[in-house]
């Protein structure tokens, strides 16, 4: 009898805290539970105190960029070489 | 070699043709009028004259085929310019092949002269089509590369700013970046609209349009040097910021 009273009091207490859903087989709802919502935010929100680093992935300027430009310039050099040949030493158009 | 030296060589080659096939081709090198009547020397050496004309025609076919290949392989040629050049080259190839058929069937020196004249003045493979093709390819390449480098400028400045915010001395990078912008801007200006100018040149405009090819070549050569300098500037920036 004493145990039954204690169980009933505990159930009422838990309902008052809004945690009664925990006793069922459903997951707790963070949206409806201010405690869980606060906990979730504290986990998912990163700290913003980290210093910004000038890394290559952020700027996009790195050795790969230079290599690509070099390849483009090589292609340009080839076409200009032909153009130079045409203009400075043309074949006989006669 | 300038166009005047070119003309001298043309006259010299005329003389060599004269010795083989008479004066059949002399008029094609120095005037824009139709060739005159055949001379006995052409009749005497007709087969050699015919072979010489065919050789010159086949050389032009080889050149035009090479130009077509260059257009097909050009990475930075715009689709419009590629289509325009391909169309002209195809048309010239068709025309030159038509002349080959004519010359193969020719039985008189007059026919040879008319076809040789057309080979030079109608098509201008060497003095118009070749420089026009290669200069247009180069102009489009410079436009494409300079635009790409221009589009990198915000990222370069952001990298410099970020390094500066971290306490790094960015004086060298900032100076190199200023030069980078100057070089890229100059290259962009040099090639801007040049493709249209080049594509507008025709065999009928030769040799008067030779100066356009020369000035275009000089401008593009300068722009090419500017893009190389811009690349050097960017190398300096990457190294000085330690972002390689």
Question: Which value, in Å, is the CA radius of gyration of chain B?
Answer: 25 Å
Helix content of chain B: over 70%
Q: What is the chains' assembly state?
A: heterodimer
Q: With helices defined by DSSP (H or I, 4 residues minimum), what is the helix count of chain A?
A: 4
* SSE sequence of chain A, one letter per element: HHHH
The radius of gyration computed from the alpha-carbon positions of chain A, rounded to a whole number of angstroms, is 37 Å
User: What's the β-strand tally of chain A?
Assistant: 0
Q: What overall geometry of chain B do the principal axes of the alpha carbons give? A: rod-shaped
- Largest interchain contact: A-B, 36 and 60 residues
Q: Can you tell me the number of structural domains of chain B?
A: 2
Please summarize the sheet with the most strands of chain B: none
Mean pLDDT of chain B: 87
Distance between the termini of chain A: 123 Å
- The helix/strand class of chain B is mainly alpha
Summarize the topology:
The complex is a heterodimer of chains A (94) and B (244).
Chain A: H1 2-17, H2 34-44, H3 56-59, H4 63-88
Chain B: H1 3-21, H2 26-30, H3 40-44, H4 46-73, H5 79-104, H6 109-121, H7 125-165, H8 171-191, H9 194-199, H10 210-241
Explain the overall architecture:
The complex is a heterodimer of chains A (94) and B (244). Chain A has 94 residues and is mostly helical. In chain A, 61% of the residues lie in helices and 0% in strands. Chain A has four helices and no strands. Chain B has two domains: 3-123, no CATH class; 127-241. Helices cover 80% and strands 0% of the residues of chain B. In chain B, helix 4 runs antiparallel to helix 5 (79-104). Mean pLDDT of chain B is 87; it is low at 1-40. Chains A and B meet through helix 3 and helix 4 of A and helix 1, helix 4, helix 7 and helix 10 of B.
């Amino acid at each position: 009898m004493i145990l039954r009273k204690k169980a009933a009091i505990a159930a009422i207490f838990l309902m008052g805290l809004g945690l009664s859903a925990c006793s069922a087989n459903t997951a707790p709802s963070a949206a409806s539970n201010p405690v869980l919502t606060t906990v979730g935010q504290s986990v998912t929100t990163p700290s913003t105190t980290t210093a910004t680093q000038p890394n290559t992935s952020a700027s996009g300027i790195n050795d790969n960029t230079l290599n690509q430009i070099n390849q483009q310039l090589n292609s340009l050099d080839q076409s200009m070489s032909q153009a130079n040949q045409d203009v400075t030493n043309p074949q006989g158009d006669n | 070699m300038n166009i005047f030296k070119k003309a001298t060589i043309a006259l010299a080659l005329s003389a060599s043709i004269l010795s083989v096939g008479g004066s059949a081709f002399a008029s094609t090198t120095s005037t824009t009028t139709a060739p005159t009547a055949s001379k006995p020397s052409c009749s005497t050496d007709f087969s050699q004259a015919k072979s010489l004309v065919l050789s010159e025609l086949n050389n032009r076919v080889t050149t035009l085929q090479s130009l077509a290949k260059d257009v097909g392989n050009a990475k930075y040629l715009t689709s419009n310019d590629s289509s325009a050049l391909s169309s002209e080259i195809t048309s010239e190839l068709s025309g030159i092949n038509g002349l080959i058929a004519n010359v193969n069937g020719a039985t008189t020196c007059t026919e040879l002269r008319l076809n040789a004249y057309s080979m030079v003045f109608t098509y201008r493979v060497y003095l118009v089509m070749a420089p026009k093709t290669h200069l247009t390819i180069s102009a489009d390449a410079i436009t494409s590369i300079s635009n790409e480098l221009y589009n990198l400028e915000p990222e370069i400045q952001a990298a410099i700013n970020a390094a500066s915010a971290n306490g790094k001395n960015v004086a060298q990078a900032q100076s190199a970046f200023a030069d980078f912008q100057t070089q890229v801007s100059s290259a962009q200006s040099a090639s801007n609209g040049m493709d249209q100018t080049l594509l507008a040149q025709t065999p009928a405009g030769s040799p008067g349009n030779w100066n356009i090819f020369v000035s275009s070549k000089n401008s593009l050569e300068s722009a090419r040097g500017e893009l190389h300098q811009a690349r050097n500037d960017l190398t300096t920036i990457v190294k000085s910021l330690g972002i390689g």
